[in-house]
Amino acid sequence: MTAGTSATAPAAATATATATLALAPGRAGRQRRRWVNPLLLAGGALLAAIVLAVVVYPLVSPYSPTEPDFTEPTFAGPGRDHWLGTDNFGRDILTRLAYAGRVDLVVAFVATAVTVVAGGALGLLAGYFGGWLDTLIMRLVDFTLTLPYLILVIAIVAILGPGTINVVYAIWLVGWVAYARIVRAETLVARGLEYVEAARVIGLGHRRIMLRHILPNVLAAALVYSMADFVLNILLASSLSFLGLGTQPPNPEWGLMVAEARDFFLRDWRLMTYPGLAVLVTGTAFGLIGDGLAQALRPRG
Amino acid sequence: MTSYLVRRLAHMVPVLVVITLFTFFLVRLVPGDPIAAMLGPRASPERRQALEQAYKLDRPIWEQYLAFVGGVGRGDLGDSLWKKEPVLDVVRQRLAPTLLLTLYAMVLTVILTVPLATWAALNRGRWPDQLVRVFVLVSLAMPAYWVGMMLLQYFAVKRRIFPVSGWGEGTVGHLEALFLPALSLALAIASLTVRSLRTSILETVDADYVRTARAKGLTTRRIFVWHVLRNSALSTVTILGINLAYLIGGTTIIETIFAIPGLGQLIVTAIFQRDYPVIQGVTLTIGIIVILINLATDLSYALLDPRVSLR
After folding, report:
1. Residue B86, helix vs strand vs coil
2. How many contacts, defined by CB atoms under 8 Å, are there between A and B?
3. Are B253 and A4 in contact (CB under 8 A)?
């Protein structure tokens, strides 16, 4: 899903995530689960490789990601000095891709992690207590969903001003909604289960029931969705930079690199191809992990 | 049925009120004011005041809101601060390209989805299934702006097969000019629909009524189209509906890349120009369309599945 669409509809991804996992919690215990499966392994390996490259390469690269270097050839092809060649300013493309990857991965991680926790907590409270709290939170959710996600994010970035960190804030403000819905729906199911009633009968406090008895069972759906959401957030953040609202030049960011390459496509198509592939490969890694998690968390039998 | 429709349409009103309230106050939070943007930094205070009065921007904010709502009631969305045209006219001009692009993307999505999902489901676990799985995984992670840009550069700029910008003239011209943008959108959406349709086909193939149909001696093709596909379509239609609603306004980036004069491009420009009336007009229009799409999605359940009753 791509923002733009990038990221096509978060809501739809929610629908699939909850659909595959609707029956996930509950009967864990006795059935044996295979935690490791090929999808999870492949995704994990791919992600590890990406993270390693993004962390290590800037440390060993002798080139600057931002400073134009006119002692180097511009639009150089792949070679020994520049593995992926150089751009229109003579900058090393691989170095820029790696620095950009740091930006994109950190933005997506921070954006996703906070929305999972905040949205999940609100969903848990809404589903567990019901009543006016539920009404209030769910009204807020409906309210946020009446406007297209992308337009809302763009409007918020317009208010805060362009910049990488403001993109994160904008995603925080709208992204929690999906998790609130997923976790609330799962909590409503879990709340009716016998073991939760049993916990209540023996007089456990709300906090303990929520955190120890309900949370572990509703976490799966949120976790699986968060993998798809991570991809969405990379797509969203890079689309905003592509539009000129996120990371600002000369700093590298994958979406921004695609935008900057647009004038040079006929001269050198690779400038535009590499950053797009970087997003694609990273997204695929998270997609694999998400599918693998869904498979691992699905009850067997 | 009629009472259902009336009730659903009545539900629109509070939602639309919320949308107008929300956008009205949200856009006024954007730093910088439209008058300064129009006149530049060195305008005299008198001119500023004159313009503020002309656009009623000097009134208290709640009065401005009531004036806006009153105008909506009379079918008047105010005038654009930049184009000096009625917002209704501006929106009307921009609506057609966006709607056409969205519908086009939906049609291409269905054209991609049905064969791919069917092929995968009928070859479950074998190589076609794996291949489709890879397609789903990759197209989910593909940035639409990148796909759009690559398609544009290669097929329009380099090969000159398609026009580089705009939305063309006449029906054929529209379909030609909007093909690449619609395809970029469709590829992204197809990742969701292919997966969902494949799963539902696999679930439906084992259903009792399919076995009955087979026992009756119906041809495989007839069983597949009338029994399997029709019953599998429900969840996919939901996803299509959600995406359709999302695309209205979500086409912003694709519209920007292909220079399509649509609503998505209009609203982003308006946000940056602080063109309050246009922002309000566009969000209201988008809100109405989204609600109508949701209604159409619910109605289509009843068409696809007679067991669904609308209450």
Report:
1. strand
2. 199
3. yes
Structure tokens at B300: 């289509």
Per DSSP, the residues of B129-186 read HHHHHHHHHHHHHS-HHHHHHHHIIIIIIIS-SS-SSS--SHHHHHHHHTHHHHHHHH
Cross-chain Cβ contact B242/A273 below 8 Å: no
DSSP string, B192-207: HHHHHHHHHHHHHHTS
Interface confidence (ipTM) of the complex: 0.82
Angle at B167 between CA B245 and CA A235, to 5 degrees: 45
Residues B200 and B210: beta-carbon distance below 8 Å: no
Q: Which amino acid is at A265?
A: F
Buried b (16+ CB within 10 A) or exposed e, A70-95: eebebebeeeeebebbbbebbbbbbb
Tell me the pLDDT of chain A averaged across its residues: 84
Q: Are B243 and B290 in contact (CB under 8 A)?
A: no
Question: What digits encode the pLDDT tens for the residues B106-125?
Answer: 999 999 999 999 999 989 88
Contact B293, B248 (CB under 8 A): yes
Task: Return residues 149-168 of A near B (CB < 8 Å).
Answer: 149-151, 154-155, 158-159, 161
pLDDT tens digits for range B141-153: 999 899 999 999 8
Contacts of B157 in chain A (CB under 8 A): 265-266
